[in-house]
Design a protein that fits this description.
Largest sheet: 8 strands, antiparallel, barrel
Mean pLDDT: 76
CATH architecture of the largest domain: Beta Barrel
Number of domains: 2
CATH topology of the largest domain: Porin
Strand content: 25-35%
Shape: elongated
Radius of gyration: 44 Å
Distance between the termini: 136 Å
Order of helices and strands: HHHHEEHHEEEEEE
Structural class: alpha+beta
């Protein structure tokens, strides 16, 4: 055998001996229980509008630079002023006593407060709150690009302002919807030559006021006490902020005290004028 072939044979024998001499390594036992879950993929990060945009700061800046702020303030004052009329009252009514079939005429004078359901323009603080709320809702829903955020906020602000100014275009009417009525007045029945005092309080339902009337007549020998309903329709004398009011009313006065002696129930219709002085 040649030397080179003999060397190769020796090396193969040595390699085989080394392989058989290695100790047996048992395979790793399987882990107890199910395999651990795979690491989840990181979720897509939504662009945080609040992190890059402060609606309140931008809305404040827009409000300061808005030329219609003074106009809104004046409109708010005008509407608030028209919603209430306070001042002296004077009136006249004619009544009929069904039991005696007699009639009488009375004049009235006193003080009255009448409030009406007139939409009031919101204050600038409330306008800014509305704009900020809408800005947050629309920005979070639309998730615009950073370069479009300011433009979107300005569009929201303009929408709110136009909506508010649209309320200003609602003109005053001659028959505003009533809200509350209070009155204290003296009455003088001309034919009976009797004085009386009346307290009125009512709330508005649609375009009329439903009121309760409590009154006394200083009759002889005993004072007569009355309680009854009153239905009133109001007419504003002007469409301006300060408006006096003309009331047309229908009333029933039901005697509570002397019914056993003489029934002095009265049904009346009349008109009353409130001069707005405040």
């Amino acid at each position: 055998m040649r030397p080179r072939a003999r060397l190769v044979t020796v090396m193969l024998v040595l390699a085989s001996s080394i392989a058989y001499a290695q100790p047996d390594v048992p395979p790793a036992p399987p882990p107890d229980g199910p395999p651990p879950p795979a690491e989840p993929m990181p979720p897509a990060v939504r662009l945080d509008v609040q992190a890059r945009f402060d609606p309140g700061a931008l809305i404040d800046q827009l409000a300061v630079n808005a030329p219609m702020v003074e106009r809104i303030a004046k409109g708010t004052f005008k509407r608030a002023r028209r919603a209430i009329s306070i001042g002296p009252t004077v009136g006249v009514y004619g009544g009929r006593f069904p039991d005696s079939e007699q009639t009488d005429v009375a004049i009235t004078f006193g003080l009255g407060i009448e409030m009406f359901k007139i939409p009031i323009l919101p204050s600038m603080e409330l306008i800014k709150e509305i704009a900020v709320k809408r800005a947050k809702e629309r920005l979070l829903a639309a998730n615009p690009q950073p370069g479009n955020v300011d433009q979107l906020a300005r569009e929201i602000w303009d929408d709110v302002i136009n909506e508010i100014l649209g309320m200003e275009n609602i003109r005053g009417r001659r028959t505003e919807k009533p809200k509350l009525t209070l009155g204290l007045e003296g009455n003088r029945l001309l034919d009976s030559e009797v004085w009386g005092v009346r307290l009125r309080a009512g709330i508005g339902i649609s375009k009329v006021t439903i009121a309760a009337s409590f009154s006394t007549l200083f009759t002889d020998p005993d004072t007569s006490i009355y309680l009854g309903p009153e239905v009133v329709l109001h007419f504003m004398t002007t469409k301006k902020p300060r408006a006096s009011v003309i009331d047309v009313f229908l009333r029933g006065d039901f005697e509570l005290r002397n019914r056993d002696v003489e029934n002095l129930d009265m049904y009346a219709v009349g008109v009353r004028f409130l001069l707005d002085v405040l």
